[in-house]
Design brief:
The complex is a heterodimer of chains A (about 110) and B (about 120). Chain A is mainly β and about 110 residues long. Chain A has no helices and 11 strands. In chain A, the strands form 2 sheets. In chain A, strands 2, 4, 5, 9, 10 and 11 form a 6-stranded mixed β-sheet that branches. In chain A, strand 9 and strand 10 form a beta hairpin. In chain B, a hairpin with a 2-residue loop joins strand 7 and strand 8. The chains are: A mainly beta (about 110), B mainly beta (about 120).
């Protein structure tokens, strides 16, 4: 049973565009929602994270939007650059547990 | 900087062989994790450990076992490798800073690409 559904599976945008990656969850016990970024040949690394008590969090060109009632959250990349080309994973965890449930990932390509 | 190292970047084994994948972290983290990554399936948790000699099954533990004899080292063992275990294996660690809020960042190693022939 997939607990975190991520879409799209792949995405191609031009430099300067705003790619949006969406995730949805069912388990209302989730209370922490990080995004991880993975470059080819590397392990994933934490990019940005949000708690459900806020609707938006911004760090540089990366923004998470969170809709608690719809049980959805999304990653927006402003002014995307070719260096942002990577695989992005959304994830969720439950209070009191150290494990993360990951989405299936989105492969993003930003063309020059 | 946190560093998680994995013993091999690439490994080729034969069906039926016993395979050991080693992971070492240098930041005194309590938690360690083993995932496998397959195209279209994302990251799936195999096993994790929250303390020395402690282990918990993840989502796909079948065909795998783990060992954690020292805090910094977490080993994944394939008792009898099969072709369907061909995959990228990722190790991660995290520090249980605040279990009540569960906001531990997981730090990943570079991965071991295992091919079972």
């Amino acid at each position: 049973q997939q607990q975190v559904k991520q879409s799209p599976q792949s995405l191609i945008v031009q430099k300067g565009g705003i790619p949006i990656i969406n995730c949805a969850y069912e388990n209302t016990a989730f209370d922490y929602f990080p995004w991880y970024q993975q470059f080819p040949g590397k392990g994933p690394a934490l990019l940005i994270a949000i708690r459900p008590d806020v609707s938006e969090k911004k760090e540089g060109r990366f923004t998470i939007s969170f809709n608690k009632s719809a049980k959805q959250f999304s990653l927006h990349i402003m002014d995307s650059q070719p260096g942002d080309s990577a695989t992005y994973f959304c994830a969720a965890s439950i209070r009191g547990y150290s494990t993360l449930t990951f989405g299936k990932g989105t492969m993003l390509l930003v063309s020059p | 900087d946190v560093k998680v190292t994995q013993s091999s970047r690439y490994l080729v084994k034969r069906t039926g062989e016993k395979v050991f994948l080693e992971c070492v972290q240098d930041m005194d983290h309590e938690n360690m994790f083993w995932y496998r990554q397959d195209p279209g399936l994302g990251l799936r948790l195999i096993y994790f450990s929250y303390d020395v000699k402690m282990k918990e099954k993840g989502d796909i533990p079948e065909g795998y076992s783990v060992s954690r004899e020292k805090k910094e080292r977490f080993s994944l063992i394939l008792e009898s490798a099969s072709t369907n275990q061909t995959s990228m294996y990722l190790c991660a660690s995290s520090f249980s800073r605040d279990r009540a809020t569960s906001t531990d960042t997981q730090y990943f190693g570079p991965g071991t690409r295992l091919t079972v022939l």
